[in-house]
Amino acid sequence: MSPEKDKPTSASPDPTFDGDMERDILILVVGDAGAGKSYFINRLLSAIGSEKEASEGHKLAIEGGTRTIEPILIEEKDWLKRYIRITMGQQRFIVVDTPGLDVTNPTTTAQRFADWMKRSFPGPLDHAHVLVGGVVYLHDISQSRIRKMTHLNLLALRNSLGEHLPWSSVVLVTTKWKYADEKVNAKAAELREEHWNLLLKSGDPNEVANVRDFKAGTPKEEEAAALDIIQPILKRVEVWMERGAMETLQQVQGLFQGMHVKNQLFTQQLSGALEKAVGIHGQISAVGVRLQGSRRQCVGGRVETTGE
């Protein structure tokens, strides 16, 4: 089979999203190639209680090559109750493993993701049933050089979503600490103060990104760290859930209010109809009396009343 026949068309839907869905919540995991995205996702899945693993998945043809975007559906439900007070209906969490960021063009990854989203979710991204909960950006702290395009990559990604994603729902994560040299702490400080500073300084708390370190440890320690990393995203999800609950409550209240108004209108109409019926009955009675009077006839000087 030729390579062209192997490539899915731009209209091909992602099979992960087959079937009915009430609410889908996406967590995007992005970063340079080799930053440890799949490893982080697998630790997160293990912490949640899922047996799934991030692996080579759905291929997207981009400029003659292939890039992998792999959505992983989290079917487990109980873990979410530990972090979110309100849940609405049947929601699904989907962790999206993305290709390595383009080191030369910050818009390439954003466009690739936007194309994938349009295929997977044909409706608008700000629809009540779909939420991009947040973004986890992974940076390999062991690398000797620090790229200066993180802000531009994340800004392009955020602009591609079609809705406002606050920086507070973005988590900047350093990885590969065990492979770093003795200058690792200095490099971590440099990241915060020089390369990530635009994302960390704002008068609005909603526009300040979060920073976490994902360090090697025991499986349980790494699972706990993975869960801690997504906490800012879960806060956004909880606000979204609360807003959805309030909207549903308002709709129910509006429905009952409408029923009450309709009942009041029906009562008024019924009362008016009864009053009208009583009036008509009185008019009919008066006419009957007059008819009876007209049936009296004078016969031979006598007044004779006809039989009824």
From TrEMBL:
InterPro entries according to UniProt: GTP-bd, P-loop_NTPase
Coiled coil start-end: none
Gene Ontology terms for molecular function: GTP binding
UniProt domain G: residue ranges: 27-107
Protein name per Swiss-Prot or TrEMBL: G domain-containing protein
